[in-house]
């Protein structure tokens, strides 16, 4: 890492120039603090487990040296020289946008879902209202729904075809047993769809099936992936629930298609990943807002699952990656150090946590086998340090159930880890599926009206992201300056989206400490 100490001229630049950009950095950083998610929110029936104490709010302190330390990071040096970041941070409405930290991480991760929408305040508010309606239900997606998402992800072309014909799709989902046989005889389905009145399960929706039969592209996809009929039958309860609202059913199919598009060719492993992302949506959301963290964990799932059982020790490593990097090549030295943590400065503050880790034979074995996790953390030091600096965000990402799900399918996650941004987009698709499932359930109870469904259909990715923190998004919807800053800076947000330095820098809570200093604002205005 480039440091102030190693370069005297750089020290001068930092001392005199940092104030010029610090308000921009501080304002945006406040906005990137993670949403207040708990460690098991969004998970389904978590198994009993041993974990050490979680990271508490008191474990995260800024102190008087927080901003100087921030200025020594690679992320700070890279971003302060970036013209897109400077453009974004100098916008007069940016402070109003940044004042809603729970929303800023989602904007940074997927700006296209929000920047265009912000140009229409009424549509933005309608989308927030839809997200509010599905928020609680989306957080409690059950295992059956997760398996339905997996089934859709394994047959994305067929379900995308069904999604274009929601009335026919709903008829199939309402009575899956009547259609299961077509899995082995797709040509029989083609014949039946052309003459739907001859089949009781189709006759009620004859015109819909006739329209499907005339859609050559859809019929071809269904023929190629006829196993979709069997998948629906095996997950009958979940699909029956989705079928209560044809629009929600169609949205769920689109989410599965987007998931598969981001992760490449559909296969059984993708289905397992899909189920995990849907069932542990909150945890994966927290990881995905730092794409390099998600990439590193995906590359070393067994080791991170072990660390997930000891979140306080995990947080200590994430706060100071350089101190632990050497253990990648000498895991036995880590074992020895963990047994005597008081002898190592980076461990001594959390000595009891490391001692507990050292006594967990299974965890230590996993770390020894996959010691490259230490180097993965060090290579993405800014991202892990930023995550560890916010206790609630870290505890959400360190959800042991989500990490165990990744470890159980390690080969799949490792294969998918090469493209961090695509993996993060797949997480958003899983969230969109959960939101659609929630909408179907609420609609059946009369708690999700046509206007809300219209808003969700028009902006599924935005609703999915907003559902995690609807109150924060409502604050933006009610602030004209925040909406203007969002809508006017689409190019800057998109240019910065793929930069890990942007995500890491913006997530550092020391920005919040600088946010209220008027001298920073004055310095920025002089640029």
UniProtKB/TrEMBL annotation:
Residues passing through the membrane, by range: 12-31
Residues annotated as domain STI1: 82-117, 155-192, 270-307, 310-347, 449-486
Alphabetically ordered keywords of this record: Membrane, Transmembrane, Transmembrane helix
Coiled-coil boundaries: none
The UniProt record lists the keyword Membrane: yes
Name of the protein in question: STI1 domain-containing protein
SMART domains recorded: STI1
């Amino acid at each position: 890492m480039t440091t102030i100490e190693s370069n005297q001229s750089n020290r001068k630049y930092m001392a005199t120039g940092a104030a010029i950009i610090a308000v921009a950095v501080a304002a945006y950083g406040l906005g990137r603090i993670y949403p207040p998610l708990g460690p098991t929110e969004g998970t389904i029936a978590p198994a009993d487990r041993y974990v050490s104490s979680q990271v508490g709010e008191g474990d995260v302190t800024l102190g008087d040296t927080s901003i100087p330390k921030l200025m020594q990071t690679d992320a700070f040096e890279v971003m302060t020289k970036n013209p897109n970041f400077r453009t974004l941070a100098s916008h007069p409405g940016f402070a109003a946008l940044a004042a809603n930290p729970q929303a800023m991480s989602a904007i940074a991760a997927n700006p296209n879902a929000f920047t265009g929408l912000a140009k229409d305040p009424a549509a933005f508010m309608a989308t927030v209202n839809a997200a509010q309606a599905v928020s609680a239900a989306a957080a409690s997606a059950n295992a059956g729904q997760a398996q339905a998402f997996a089934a859709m992800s394994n047959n994305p072309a067929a379900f995308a075809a069904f999604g274009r014909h929601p009335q026919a799709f709903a008829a199939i989902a309402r009575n899956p047993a009547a259609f299961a046989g077509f899995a082995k005889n797709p040509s029989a389905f083609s014949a039946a769809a052309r003459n739907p009145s001859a089949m009781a399960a189709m006759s009620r929706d004859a015109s819909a099936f006739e329209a499907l039969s005339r859609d050559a592209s859809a019929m071809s996809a269904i023929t190629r992936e006829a196993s979709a009929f069997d998948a629906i039958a095996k997950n009958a309860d979940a699909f029956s629930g989705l079928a209560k609202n044809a629009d929600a059913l169609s949205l769920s199919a689109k989410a599965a298609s987007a998931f598969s598009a981001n992760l490449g060719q559909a296969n059984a492993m993708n289905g397992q990943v899909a189920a995990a992302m849907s069932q542990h949506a909150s945890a994966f959301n927290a990881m995905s807002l730092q794409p390099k963290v998600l990439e590193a964990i995906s590359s070393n799932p067994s080791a991170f699952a072990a660390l997930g059982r000891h979140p306080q020790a995990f947080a200590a490593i994430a706060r100071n990656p350089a101190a632990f990097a050497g253990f990648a090549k000498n895991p036995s030295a880590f074992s020895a150090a963990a047994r005597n943590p008081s002898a190592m400065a980076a461990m001594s503050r959390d000595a009891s946590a490391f001692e507990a880790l050292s006594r967990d034979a299974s965890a230590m074995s996993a770390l020894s086998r996959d010691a490259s996790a230490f180097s993965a953390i060090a290579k993405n030091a800014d991202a892990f340090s930023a995550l560890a600096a916010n206790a609630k965000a870290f505890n959400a990402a360190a959800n042991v159930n989500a990490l165990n799900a990744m470890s159980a399918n390690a080969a799949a996650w490792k294969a998918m880890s090469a493209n961090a941004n695509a993996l993060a987009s797949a997480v958003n698709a899983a969230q969109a599926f959960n939101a659609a499932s929630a909408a179907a359930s609420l609609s059946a109870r009369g708690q999700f009206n046509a206007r809300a469904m219209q808003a969700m259909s028009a902006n599924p990715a935005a609703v999915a992201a907003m559902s995690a923190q609807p109150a924060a998004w409502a604050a933006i919807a009610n602030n004209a300056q925040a909406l203007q800053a969002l809508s006017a800076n689409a190019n800057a947000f998109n240019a910065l989206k793929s930069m890990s330095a942007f995500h890491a820098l913006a997530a550092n809570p020391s920005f919040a400490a600088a946010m209220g200093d008027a001298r920073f604002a004055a310095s920025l205005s002089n640029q």
